[in-house]
Design brief:
Jelly Rolls; 11 helices; about 20% strand; three-stranded antiparallel sheet; about 325 residues
Length: about 325
């Protein structure tokens, strides 16, 4: 397959407009989902949607019991899909959560979330990747700026931009404990990276992001256009973000842990090919590629999902854009 998004070729390449739609039209899904045209337009413009308090605290608290049980299992803790913090040795990430936990699997099929994702991607979907991320107080490392799609395209063989990440907050995310930061509008451009990918890069990159980071001049250009936002809120809040939206997070310097659930929905029509970077595919727990089946849910009559307005953020972004023009 021809590489539509070349990256990590050992040379500096200019960013270019994405070649795929942001909202994938489909008569079956676009007009029968929970998002109205205003929400769809916002997602197309910004590359993410934020829902504060989407679930109640009682819906997410049981996941801590599962994490505690896992941490007591020495054999499980030694598995490749369990990532420890390189400094403290504490639990950092657990992958394939939808296969480990029935509770997690059920959450990926929640009709409101699944309905929104099918609407955005215009097709049936499956779980490409799932995980829990932990940042313990005073020690949780951050991640440098990157596009998930750039990694998934280069290292896993995801052909096109047709995936959505869902992040559900297990703990409060605030300005002190390393919340996720996003550059609104950055999903509209593909930013190629320079350095080629060595074999089994994932063993290092899951602990510290070194490759797949755009050049600083490109990051500055995109941030000057769209600004930077860091959605913050209580446990149970939901963030949906497009696979090419640039994001990062700082180290947790606060005494409070920051724990989030992540699950990545990919279109059933966008399954993995051979990695475009030329290396062998990463493990299945990072990029599901075998026995792929679309997620199912019961037939439901969707209630509209209300997307809160961010007047201050919109005013700031518009003022910044006016200044650039």
């Amino acid at each position: 397959m021809q590489d539509a998004y070349p990256t990590r070729r050992g040379e500096s390449l200019e960013p270019f407009p994405r070649l795929d739609p942001v909202v994938h039209s489909s008569a079956r899904f676009r007009w029968h989902g929970p998002l109205d045209e205003c929400a769809l337009s916002r997602y197309e413009r910004d590359g993410f949607l934020w829902f504060e308090g989407f679930f109640g605290r009682e819906r997410v608290e049981p996941f801590f019991d599962e994490l505690a049980e896992l941490s007591r299992d020495a054999e499980a803790m030694a598995a490749d899909h369990v990532i420890k913090d390189p400094d403290s040795g504490e639990l950092r990430s657990v992958f394939s959560m939808h296969e480990i936990s029935q509770r997690f699997s059920n959450l990926t099929r929640d009709p409101r979330i699944l309905g929104m994702v099918q609407q955005l991607l215009g097709s049936d979907v499956y779980i490409h990747q799932s995980r829990i991320n932990d940042k313990f107080g005073f020690q949780g490392r951050g991640f440098d700026w990157h596009s998930d799609f750039e990694t998934w395209h280069c290292e896993d063989g995801m052909p096109r931009m047709r995936a959505v990440s869902a992040s559900i907050l297990l703990t409060e995310n605030n300005e002190f404990n390393g919340p996720l930061m996003l550059i609104p509008g950055s999903h509209q451009y593909f930013a190629p990276c320079v350095d080629p990918t060595p074999e089994e890069n994932w063993k290092d990159s899951l602990k510290k992001q070194r490759l797949g980071v755009p050049e600083k001049s490109v990051l500055r250009w995109l941030a000057n256009r769209g600004g930077i936002e860091a959605p913050k809120g209580p446990p149970g809040s939901l963030l949906l973000f497009e696979c090419n939206t640039l994001h990062a997070s700082n180290m947790n310097m606060s005494p409070w842990s920051r724990s989030n659930l992540f699950f990545v929905y990919n279109s059933i029509e966008n399954q993995m090919q051979e990695p475009f970077g030329g290396q062998k595919p990463r493990p299945d727990f990072l990029a599901h590629r075998t026995d792929v089946e679309p997620l199912t849910m019961r037939d439901v009559a969707f209630e509209p999902v209300v997307v809160p307005a961010h007047k201050h953020a919109e005013t700031t972004a518009q003022a910044r854009q006016d200044a650039l023009e």
